[in-house]
Specification:
By secondary structure, the chain is an alpha/beta fold. The protein contains 16 helices and 22 strands. A 7-stranded mixed beta sheet has the order 14-15-16-13-12-18-19, with helices on both faces. Helix 2 packs across helix 6, helix 3 crosses helix 4 and helix 4 packs parallel to helix 5. The protein is globular and about 90 Å long. The structure holds nicotinamide-adenine-dinucleotide (NAD).
Length: 537
């Protein structure tokens, strides 16, 4: 495991007579601005060496078998449960979210993902028979086998710095892969916490390694000899990774950004839906891939809904996430705040109105931004089109369900969405028309906490899935194993072609596919003859 060696504060390397400063990875508490730890980023050589170690260790990890892997991962679960509060503090200190969210959306998600992986892996890895319908192939027995890829590279973001890499790691490990994880440069400590727990539980150090580093370490990972890459991050980085991966046909899962719409239909409960909107937009300070990023409300409910959202938003308590009375913590860093400010400025310059929040809360610290409610927005504005990834809830009215679906689908993204209604059948019908990887009826964001629920997007939100059965599928190669039950017999379709053979093949096709009985009968007679064709060559 790469823990990074602490170096003197100003590390300078002499390159001829020019001094070149080596970029460090510094973990910072976003609430206080205090540096928590400094790391030397893993270099290209470090990445290659780690991948080589993982490759050497992986066969042993597969060979210990499913029961032993399950036992080790259950031990990890037991240890994480025992240390849940400590782990939550590490997450809150490094990523800023309130302790309650660190427990609920990180620790609990990982405990449950361990349950799912350990409960499902037996059935998942069981060989599956592949029955044949083709008459000509009836002497064969087919099976599908799932095999681990080998070394899975994982590159993860900072917003769920424990649960995202952990859930992906667990599905890779349980199926027999070794993992090299490159966490976000902003949340290295959370990844090291995960590594500590896994290693203590018995996952060999080379089977799960953490490489602390930034984008350049990530690029080196994509170029290294990994067998599969699971990337979670922005669409911009995802596209760069897809290009690099294409050059060598590296299979990738891309979990990218979103612009999730929330549709409040005319029969929705305003009290419930407005609370859902405020939580869905501001959980993790709006920095969730499944955050409510744009809200559409039926005209008949619009005024009361907006009033309720503004009232509830103004009651939110913003501050350091370690204080249990806090609802919304800081944003991760200055760059993310500037994106929010620039989108808000652009929207206001085009006529949007801020009804709550709208600015930094500098008295609390440099990374705090007030939860913001915005109205008079439209799809000309960046705030309705580009991922904001901050505490902003823009609300727009619609006239009918048709228009709501059109607005929801008018986006480059398609990660999640939600529909709010008292009529569940209507909610499902509208949900099915929305172009996204997940649609929730009467809730938002929380599907990420359902270990069985597949997670992933369409359009610019990515490729492939994590979580659930499909998440396990991404960690294995499927192999088709075919056993001919008449091993001592030459096959009629081998060489020895000729006119008779050609007519007999026509007969086989007629027997199998003709809709005319006469033709099928003739086909059957010709097919019987094929058995005499064997052994010409
Ligand atoms: P990011 O794309 O900046 O970085 C993600 C990871 O990629 C980091 O570890 C980073 O160091 C690494 N990286 C950066 N450049 C790279 C390169 N050229 N090659 C390889 N790796 C590189 O994203 P972020 O700011 O860390 O995370 C926020 C984004 O992640 C948002 O867009 C959010 O929607 C998305 N996200 C998506 C999901 C999902 O499940 N779909 C979940 C969480 C976050």
């Amino acid at each position: 495991m790469w823990r990074g060696r602490p170096r003197p504060r100003k590390l300078l390397v002499m390159a001829t007579d020019v001094q070149v400063a080596i970029r460090k990875v510094v973990s910072v508490n976003p609430a206080t601005g205090k540096a928590l730890r400094e790391f030397e980023p893993a270099t290209e050589q470090d990445v290659q060496a780690a991948v080589a170690r993982a490759r050497a260790a992986q066969p042993g990890w597969t060979e210990i078998g499913v029961p032993r892997r399950i036992a080790i991962l259950r031990d990890f679960q037991r240890r994480l449960h025992g240390r849940k509060t400590d782990v939550a503090h590490v997450i809150t200190n490094e990523a800023g979210k309130p302790l309650a969210e660190a427990l609920l959306t990180e620790v609990m998600v990982v405990l449950d993902a361990t349950r799912f992986c350990t409960e499902s892996v037996y059935a998942f890895l069981r060989e599956e028979s592949v029955p044949h319908g083709n008459l000509a192939m009836k002497t064969k027995s087919g099976r599908m086998i799932r095999e681990p890829y080998g070394v899975v590279g994982i590159i993860s973001p900072w917003n769920y710095p424990f649960s995202i890499p952990a859930t992906e790691t667990l599905s890779a490990l349980v199926t027999g892969n070794a993992v090299v994880l490159k966490p976000s440069e902003f949340t290295s400590l959370c990844a090291l916490e995960l590594a500590g727990l896994l290693h203590e539980a018995g996952v060999p150090e080379d089977v799960f390694q953490v490489l602390v580093g930034d984008g350049s370490t990530g690029s080196a990972m994509v170029a290294a000899e990994i067998d599969k890459l699971v990337f979670t991050g922005s669409a911009a980085t995802g596209k760069r990774i897809a290009q690099a991966a294409a050059a060598r046909l590296l299979p990738v899962v891309l979990e990218l950004g979103g612009k999730d719409p929330m549709l409040v239909l005319d029969d929705a409960d305003v009290e419930v839906a407005s609370s859902g909107a405020v939580w869905g937009a501001f959980v993790n300070a709006g920095q969730a891939c499944l955050s409510v990023e744009r809200c559409y409300v039926h005209r008949s409910l619009y005024e009361s809904f907006v009033e309720a959202c503004v009232r509830k938003t103004k009651k939110l308590r913003v501050g350091n996430g370690t204080d249990p009375e806090i609802d919304v913590g800081p944003m991760i860093h200055e760059r993310q705040l500037r994106i929010v400010e620039s989108q808000l400025e652009e929207a206001v310059s085009r006529g949007a109105r801020v009804l709550a929040g709208g600015s930094r809360l500098e008295k609390l610290g440099r990374n705090f931004f007030a939860p913001t409610v915005l109205v008079d927005v439209n799809h000309e504005m960046q705030i309705m089109r580009e991922e904001t990834f901050g505490p902003v809830l823009p609300i727009m009215p619609f006239e009918n369900d048709e228009e709501a679906v059109r607005l929801a689908n008018d986006s480059d993204y398609g990660l999640g969405a939600s529909v709010w209604t008292r009529n569940l059948a209507r909610g499902e019908a509208v949900a099915k028309r929305i172009q996204s990887g997940t649609v929730m009826v009467n809730d938002a964001v929380s599907c990420f906490g359902i270990s069985e629920a597949l997670h992933g997007g369409v359009k610019a939100s990515g490729l492939g899935r994590t979580h659930g059965h499909f998440g396990l599928e991404e960690m294995v190669r499927v192999k088709y194993l075919d056993v001919d039950l008449l091993g001592g017999v030459k096959k009629s379709w081998w060489y020895g072609y000729g006119e008779k053979f050609t007519r007999q093949m026509e007969g086989v096709i007629d027997l199998m596919f003709s809709r005319r009985w006469g033709q099928r009968l003739r086909g059957a007679l010709l097919t019987a003859g094929t058995f005499k064709l064997k052994g010409k060559l």
